[in-house]
Amino acid sequence: MRAPMRIVFDLDGTLIDSAADIHHAASATLRAEGLSEVTLAQTRSFVGNGARVFVERLERAVAGSNIPERTERMRAVFAEEYRKAHGLTQVYPGVEEALAALKAQGWRIGLCTNKPMVPTRAVLKHFGWEDLFETVFAGDSLTRMKPEPEPLEAALEELGEGLCLFVGDSEVDAATAKAAGVPFALYTEGYRKNPVEALPHTEAFSDWAELPAIAARIAR
Ligand SMILES: O=C(O)COP(=O)(O)O
Ligand SMILES: [Mg+2]
Predict the structure, then answer these.
(1) Which residues constitute the catalytic centre (predicted)?
(2) Cα(14)–Cα(186) distance, rounded to whole angstroms?
(3) Residue 1 confidence (pLDDT) above 60
(4) Which residue among 50, 83, 116 closes a domain?
(5) In the predicted model, what is the mean pLDDT of the chain?
């Protein structure tokens, strides 16, 4: 009998390009404080360590520092805006076909994102993906988030035993996989800040059509 296989995906910058919506939510948050706005490229560079860190980076970029009361107000506005922010989000080309192919190959599929659970569920619903993942760990599911290994380990545990693979786009994901001792497939078209070579990875891909073959190779 074939050993079970488990594959866990990151969300932002891996399955979906959500930067435009995050930028929109960030702009509303900054406007509410009378602060100047940031560019889409800046927004992209602030994504990766969850919503709390995102807001801190945003505030620091335009105001020079974090003032606790202001940071809290900004967090509240951002959370509200983020929940509604999926109209501009695009699924990367080939993602749905690749996930279907992986399922057909016998992979059990999970999600491990640093995005909080409320906007994560909202975006999954938006794309009709509520039942796509057998397990979902968000940035606020546990007390620790990526790059700590716990959420990835927890997602894998929920998927049972067997060979495993993590797929993500960023330095945070590469570090998480390394910390958990899990093979890592790097999607190169997401929000990473450094060259591909600088991120520890088992395999890298730029086209989702390549992933089923990569996974099959790792599973051999
Ligand atoms: O929301 C974030 O900061 C990052 O989200 P991700 O873990 O899905 O890339
Ligand atoms: Mg990501």
Answers:
(1) 10
(2) 9
(3) no
(4) 83
(5) 96
